[in-house]
Design brief:
By secondary structure, the protein is an alpha+beta fold. 34% of the residues lie in helices and 30% in strands. It contains 2 helices and 3 strands; from the N terminus they run E-E-H-E-H. A 3-stranded antiparallel sheet has the order 2-1-3, covered by helices on one side.
C-alpha cells in the first residue's frame, strides 16, 4: 500500500515546533496536508514529501512498523 509522508522541518524558528509529520493515503490528501502546513506557517522549502510503500501482509507490516515507528 502506498502512503505519502509529509515532513516539515523547522530550521530555527522558535514559534514553530522542531518538526511535524503528516501521513496521507492519496496525492489529493497529500496536497491538503501540505496546504495545512503552509497555512500553519511552514514554508515550502521546509516541507518534504516522501512516497512510502507499506506492506499489507501481517509479517511484512509488523516488520515495517518495528523498523519505522517510534
Amino acid at each position: 500500500m502506498r502512503f505519502y509522508k509529509i515532513v516539515a522541518k523547522n530550521p530555527a524558528d522558535d514559534s514553530l515546533p522542531d518538526s511535524e509529520t503528516k501521513w496521507a493515503v492519496s496525492k489529493a490528501d497529500g496536497v491538503a496536508a501540505r496546504k495545512a502546513l503552509y497555512d500553519a506557517g511552514w514554508r515550502r522549502k521546509e516541507v518534504e514529501e516522501t512516497e512510502v510503500d507499506v506492506p499489507t501482509d501481517k509479517a511484512g507490516l509488523l516488520t515495517w512498523l518495528n523498523e519505522n515507528v517510534r
